[in-house]
Specification:
The protein has 255 residues and is α/β, with parallel strands linked by helices. Helices cover 34% and strands 25% of the residues. It contains nine helices and 14 strands. It is globular. The protein binds zinc ion (ZN) and fe (iii) ion (FE).
Length: 255
């Protein structure tokens, strides 16, 4: 079984992803910020679009869907919990449901927090996790709808996946995220090295997405609210993890 995944820049700083199962010739898109970069990539590859997976209802993740629907008639998959705000769905899913791209099987995580009803799609054999605006490279989505406790529990589910999982997140915010992360953990050597790598990549216009979950666990402050050194840096040695996460999120909002 061969799986190909393409990272496609859209709008100012969004990403969308095409996943292609070579065995069956099936292709799926993960979020639809805008149609034209996607149709161009499909034409270059000679692929049709069979499915579109939506992570959440924000316009920069769904506004490209109408044109793609007109052109390719894909099946559209999204959260049952958010049926009222998402475009019309052909398959509505909840946590633990199985989804497929050809022969590639995946599962659904409820990762509410940025929005309620936000989902992530995980394909273990492809080692691919599509997170939208939940877990992001060195960051996480703002808490527009959920509270810190909800987001912490969402991120904790993803943190338990294998460290070699590739995290395909929705935005190129990584350089700004690195600046903030260094204020939380200035002495984290892995973070310092990653920040240098990010600066080099962005200077060459290279995407910092996907990252690996292992990198995120070692450097992403939003996954590290339970780490004693992080708590100590914030003077919150005895605080519960979710409260430390809330503090980090609030500091980032004001950064
Ligand atoms: Zn969003
Ligand atoms: Fe977004």
């Amino acid at each position: 079984m061969t799986t190909e995944i393409l990272t496609i820049p859209c709008l100012a700083d969004n990403y969308t992803f095409l996943m292609h199962d070579d065995t069956t010739g099936t292709t799926a898109l993960f979020d639809a910020p805008e149609p034209f970069p996607v149709t161009r990539a499909l034409e270059e590859q000679g692929w049709k679009l069979d499915k579109v997976f939506l992570t959440h209802h924000h316009w920069d993740h769904i506004d490209g869907l109408p044109e793609l629907r007109d052109e390719y008639r894909p099946q559209v998959i999204g959260a049952k919990a958010d049926i009222g705000r998402l475009p019309a769905l052909d398959q509505s899913v909840t946590e633990g449901d199985t989804v497929t791209v050809g022969n590639i099987e995946g599962t659904v995580f409820d990762v509410s927090g940025h929005t309620n009803g936000h989902v992530a799609f995980y394909f273990p054999d492809a080692k691919a996790l599509f997170t939208g605006d939940s877990l992001m490279a060195l960051g996480c989505g703002r808490l527009f709808e959920g509270d810190a406790e909800t987001m912490w529990s969402s991120l904790s589910k993803l943190a338990a996946l294998p460290p070699d999982t590739l995290v395909y997140s929705g935005h190129e915010y990584t350089a700004a995220n690195a600046k903030f992360a260094l204020t939380i953990e200035p002495d984290n050597a892995a973070l310092q090295a990653r920040a240098r790598d990010i600066t080099e990549k962005r200077a060459k216009g290279i995407a910092t997405v996907p990252s690996t979950l292992g990198e995120e666990l070692a450097t992403n402050p939003f996954l590290r609210a339970s780490v004693p050194q992080v708590k100590a840096n914030l003077g919150m040695e005895n605080a519960p993890d979710a409260l430390v996460f809330a503090k980090i999120r609030q500091m980032k909002d004001n950064f």
